Amino acid sequence: MSARRLVVVTAGLGQPSTSRMLADRLATAAARAITHREEDVEIEIVELRDHARAITNRMLAGSGSPELEAILGSLGGADGLIAVTPVFSASYSGLFKMFFDVVEPGALTGMPVLMGATAGTPRHSLVLEHALRPLFSYLGTMPVRTAVFASSQDWAESGDANGLAGRIERAATELAAAVTGDTTRTAPNALDDLVPLDQLLGEDR
User: Cα torsion at 179, 180, 184, 189 (round to 10°)?
Assistant: First the structure.
């Protein structure tokens, strides 16, 4: 059996960026979860900052660079997608949106997607539900139930099950199940992904 292929798209602008850091952790956890199912996995990392000019050219003139065309072709043939964006002005970044605007219609139909976002404050965590999930639903993908948000304070967390590490593992397990066709389901806890109100307000009171 051929290896499962995951494409990881990250729209961080810095180098290094917290979006790339989160993308790497999600990819590592997803690869581990897939190999635990006794399947091989290949990971392709795409940093959109390296292709910003080509993405713009493709939107304006209909053609990008050979590298961008190869990425789009690879994405269309992937078994799963991990997509991580920084939050700007309460939504995904413009570069992130531009990239998915140049993806051919129908190329991502039915593809399992693990969504991630990063920002300085937990107050932006709802961007996953009000911006990213509608975008990927419109593109015809199958977003996994758990999306992962990381604020500045999450990087110093202790690793408990409800912290960033726990959310990463849960989301990666869901993606691995979707990619490998595992139909086993566990009853979701509607409170799992809620951010406590005092945490949402903590930095802005």
Answer: -30
Number of neighbours of residue 23 by Cβ within 10 angstroms: 27
The Cα–Cα gap between 102 and 165 comes to 32
Distance from C-alpha of 46 to C-alpha of 51, rounded to nearest angstrom: 9
Ordered DSSP codes for 133-152: HHHHHHTT-EE-S--EEEEG
Could you tell me the two tokens for 93?
């970044």
Mean pLDDT of the chain: 88
Q: Rounded to whole angstroms, how far apart are CA atoms 73 and 23?
A: 21
Residues 6 or more apart whose Cβ sits within 8 Å of residue 7: 44, 46, 71, 74, 75, 78, 80, 81, 82
User: Please, which pLDDT band fits residue 20 given cuts at 50, 70 and 90?
Assistant: very high
- List the end-to-end C-alpha distance of the chain, in Å, as a whole number: 54
pTM comes to 0.87
Closest among 134, 205, 159 to 29, alpha carbons compared? 159
Q: Which two tokens stand for residue 76?
A: 């269309």
Asked if residue 184 has pLDDT above 60, the reply is no
